[in-house]
UniProtKB/TrEMBL annotation, chain A:
InterPro entries: ATP-dep_DNA_ligase, ATP_dep_DNA_lig_pp_1105_fam, DNA_ligase_ATP-dep_C, DNA_ligase_ATP-dep_cent, DNA_ligase_ATP-dep_N, DNA_ligase_N_sf, NA-bd_OB-fold. Signal peptide: none annotated. This is DNA ligase (ATP). One of its GO terms (molecular function) is DNA ligase (ATP) activity. One of its GO terms (biological process) is DNA repair. It comes from Aequorivita aquimaris. NCBIfam families: DNA_lig_bact, PRK09247.1.
UniProtKB/TrEMBL annotation, chain B:
Residues 321-340 are annotated as: Disordered. This is mRNA 3'-end processing factor. It comes from the Bacteria. InterPro entries: MBL, RibonucZ/Hydroxyglut_hydro, Xnuc_lig_assoc. One of its GO terms (molecular function) is RNA endonuclease activity. SUPFAM superfamilies: Metallo-hydrolase/oxidoreductase.
Length: 530, 340
């Protein structure tokens, strides 16, 4: 654990990518295989299941510390991180534990099955056997994921340096639903194995947003293939060995959530992997993303729900064909095969459609198509270089997204909550309201969009203008107007305002506007596409 | 009803009987000043009373003012009210103010810490009935390590940076924290360079305190001569153009707020050392206990939470008062600069 804690400390104490990679590389060169495997797992968000709920963690930590629970809660609101709060309030310890990361993780896995009293004893003993930072890391493993500014890409780069294995190959090996409990470092990283191959997805290729005046940099427009940017769930559908696997972009196996895709087996041959977007589809057309929300969170997909919100796969790329990885083929070739496949089969019957590709002769014509995005329920256009291979991860150059401008509305700040992580102890999570018959009605929450300096300014203002406190939440004097941007809008019975917005964020602080000039709920409703 | 010995009004902490203010935040006629930080020694009072060693410091900050210096424990009586200053241990020449009238004793701590930092006069517990205390770090999450440990880390950090050919830049407020850092840096590792704000204040402090040699960075100071050495600078220098000329460098901040991961990450500082000139949770509680007081008034910091704890868990008659010293309302990043 000492070495792993040391690694986390190093990663945490620099914001320079090279230093992070160097620290990780060094760790991967020296750690034992079991620790390496768990480090990879934890940094790719595959932590063991939580063995103890957080209520008990709080309770036991306060018992050891001798402070009342309310004081713990107050401290937690200010520290902004549970693992950190527990590590801080426990009595300091001069003890050292020689147990390794993997030993700790094995014990944590085992802990789940133990009776409560033994759990308590285990935590008590181990908390007091670790120094502050080790304790913090231990708590992080117990409670949640590590957010330490290490992306999977960065970790893969370090692992590549330490092992000499190509980064893209490693990225592929690390995909899928492996867990350290069922594999070994050797098997996962070093060996060639076909066993897990069956369900394994390819790393997704992700696009960057276009930059200003991008048209000049992209070369002849005839090099580019255009599509609408569909607003659904990016997915990879694998058909191998008479089985269907559906992966989300978050590398989650979501096959069970989309039982309708089992129909693909009827028409699509084994050895096919399709990249596309899961979209809600009814009455012959794409529906609003909001209707998909009702399916995303559900564990069990009932027949009624399947009938109410059917989905389709809008296919836009083919990664594997006849059992061959064809990612290095040019996009135009891959699309040719994909288009041929979809046209040949009873595609509508099994719920697979093609994301139509378009060619434009001028940027003006492309822009005109982009203007139709809202009508077509897309978020804008995708630009794909016709001769480009399918790359790994987010890379600049071959795929671009050219999104439409977001919806915007001017709203009043009404509530604030302290942020987490690097915003701990600062009021950065805001609730916004719009006018409705002389009252301010809450319509959205937003946490991003201001600069650090602006957040500090708003934070200081909030602390001086608090009306009431409800635990961590403060209501504030309605005084400031912010322009809120969002991507989508739909009616919703789950929201007080009757409206749900997608990805709301702060566009700017309208210091020039008095609250009387903020928008009304009716203004917001008028934005809903008819 | 009897008027309390000290009240909090719109100008500051006021003793009506003596017509004297303590650490007033608006201009007044006569003001006792606990220490040299800007939020406690404001501009514009007609007459200042403070510890002798603080006289050159506030004169440096406020210019030509009318100021009387007092020694530790020296009683001065104004209109029958007895006043005396006692070390607060916060920074060099920082005082607590003891106020006594007809056998009733109040103590105002100003800012204080209980640990001996090897430079500031060590905090002295003063018996009283009512204790007015700061509680900047009044949460159980704050627990300071002994400073010998912290300075071991700081010096190791410097030595490592030097071995990697990099310059170390350590941020600390120019009065108090900067001199405490200077005092304990291991000069066998290299030379100490200073930012102008730190150098000027340190020069003033040297009148009464012994500090290691420092070299002011000027326009002529070359990058090569600084390489591997350490620079002590105020936090405001972070991210400035002034700093960019020292590449390759590593930054660190020494402050109680460095307890929070978030506070350090937000400022994009490479390393945070938890080193504060305020009392931690245990320090606050032990200080209160040592005064034998019955009443506690919490002024700046996590006052509501701290006072609630004193009332509900320890049975004190505790309440809060608003002041214009560093409060919770000041956001953390500013606090990093002003805390000391």
């Amino acid at each position: 654990m000492k070495d792993f804690a040391q690694l986390i400390k190093k990663l945490d104490s620099t914001n320079k990518t090279n230093e992070k990679v160097a620290a990780l590389t060094q760790y991967f060169q020296n750690a034992n295989d079991a620790d390496k495997l768990w480090t990879i797992a934890i940094l790719s968000h595959r932590r063991p299941k939580r063995p103890v709920n957080t209520t008990l963690l709080r309770l036991w930590a306060t018992e050891i510390s001798g402070i009342p629970l309310w004081l713990f809660e107050e401290s937690y609101h200010i520290v902004g991180d549970l693992a950190e709060t527990i590590a801080l309030i426990l009595p300091t310890s001069e003890e050292h534990s020689e147990k390794s990361l993997s030993e700790f993780v094995s014990e944590i896995i085992e802990l789940r099955t133990l009776p409560e009293e033994e759990k308590k004893k285990y935590l008590h003993d181990n908390w007091l056997a670790l120094n502050y930072f080790e304790r913090f890391v231990f708590n992080k493993i117990l409670t949640g994921s590590f957010r330490i500014g290490v992306s999977q890409k960065l970790m893969t780069r370090a692992l590549s340096k330490a092992t000499g294995i190509d980064e893209d190959i490693l990225a592929y090996k690390l995909m899928g639903d492996w867990t350290p409990e069922k594999t070994t470092y050797k098997k996962l990283i070093l060996e060639q194995n076909d066993e897990d191959y069956l369900s394994k997805p390819y790393p997704f290729y992700l696009a960057y947003a276009v930059e200003d005046n991008f048209q000049e940099d992209l070369g002849p427009i005839s090099d580019w293939s255009f599509e609408h940017k569909w607003d659904g769930i990016r997915s990879q559908v694998i058909i191998r060995n008479d089985e269907v696997f559906v992966w989300s972009r978050g590398e989650e196996l979501v096959t069970d959530k989309y039982p309708e895709f089992q129909n693909f087996l009827k028409e699509i041959p084994n050895g096919t992997v399709i990249d596309g977007e899961i979209l809600p589809f009814g009455e012959g057309e794409i529906q609003n993303f909001n209707t998909l929300q009702t399916r995303i969170g559900r564990k069990n997909i009932s027949k009624a729900l399947l009938k109410k919100t059917p989905v389709i796969l809008n296919a836009y790329d083919l990664l594997e064909w006849q059992g061959e990885d064809i990612r290095q083929e040019p996009f135009s070739e891959r699309r040719k095969i994909l288009d041929g496949l979809i046209q040949k089969i009873n595609s509508e019957e099994i719920g697979i459609y093609l994301s139509e590709t378009m060619n434009f002769e001028t940027w003006e014509a492309a822009a005109a198509e982009r203007d139709l995005s809202r009508e077509k329920r897309s978020e804008g256009l995708m630009l794909k270089r016709k001769d480009s291979p399918y790359l790994v991860g987010r890379k600049k150059g071959d795929w671009w997204k050219w999104k439409i401008d977001p919806f915007t509305i001017d709203a009043v700040l009404t509530y604030a909550m302290r942020g987490h992580g690097r915003r701990a102890n600062l009021y950065t999570d805001y609730t916004f309201a719009l006018w409705d018959e002389g009252e301010l009605v809450t319509f959205a929450k937003a946490y991003s969009g201001l600069t650090d300096a602006e957040f500090r300014q708003v934070d200081a203002w909030i602390k001086r203008n608090t009306l009431e406190r409800f635990g961590p939440v403060r209501s504030v004097t309605p005084q400031h107007v912010f322009e809120i941007a969002f991507e989508g809008i739909a009616e919703s019975s789950r929201h007080k305002s009757g409206i749900a917005t997608r990805f709301p964020r702060i566009l700017r602080w309208r210091k020039d506007k008095p609250i009387a000039e903020a928008n009304t709920l009716d203004d917001l409703k008028a934005l809903i596409p008819k | 009803m009897k008027q309390p010995l000290l009240v909090f009004n719109e100008k500051g902490i006021y003793c009506q009987k003596a017509d004297v203010y303590i650490d007033a935040w608006r201009p007044v006629d006569k003001c006792i000043v606990t220490h040299g930080h800007a939020d406690h020694s404001r501009w514009g009072h007609k007459q200042y009373i403070t510890h002798t060693n603080n006289v050159p410091i506030i004169k440096h900050r406020l210019g030509e003012i009318s100021v009387t210096g007092k020694a530790w424990n020296e009683t001065f009586t104004i209109n029958g009210v007895k006043f005396s200053l006692h070390p607060a241990g916060h920074i060099i020449a920082s005082s607590q103010v003891r106020v006594e009238y007809k056998g009733e004793v109040w103590v105002f701590t100003g800012d204080f810490k209980t640990e001996d930092d090897g430079l500031a006069e060590v905090y002295e517990p003063v018996k009283c009935h009512t204790f007015i205390t700061e509680c900047t770090f009044g949460l159980p999450a704050f627990k300071w390590e002994p400073q010998t440990e912290v300075f071991k880390d700081i010096n190791e950090w410097w030595a490592t940076n030097k071995s990697e050919g990099r310059t170390s830049i350590l941020f600390g407020y120019s009065l108090g924290k900067a001199q405490r850092l200077l005092k304990h840096l291991d000069t066998s590792i290299g030379k100490i360079y200073t930012h102008g704000a730190v150098e000027n204040m340190t020069e003033v402090v040297r009148e009464n305190y012994k500090l290691p040699k420092t070299t002011l960075i000027t326009r002529d100071t070359s990058k090569e001569e600084i390489k591997g050495n350490i620079i002590v600078a105020p936090p405001s220098a972070h991210g400035s153009t002034w700093i960019r000329r020292f590449v390759p460098y590593v930054t660190a901040s020494a402050s109680g707020w460095m307890t929070f991961r978030g506070a350090r990450r937000r400022r994009a500082i490479d390393r945070g050392f938890v080193l504060s000139d305020h009392a931690d949770w245990e320090g606050l509680l032990s200080a209160i206990d040592a005064t034998g007081c019955e009443k506690v008034i919490a002024t700046h910091g996590y006052t509501d939470i701290f006072a609630k704890y004193l009332r509900e868990e320890l049975g004190y008659d505790a309440r809060t008062e608003k002041t214009q010293y560093e409060e919770e309302s000041a956001e953390v990043d500013k606090k990093i600069e002003n805390e000391d």
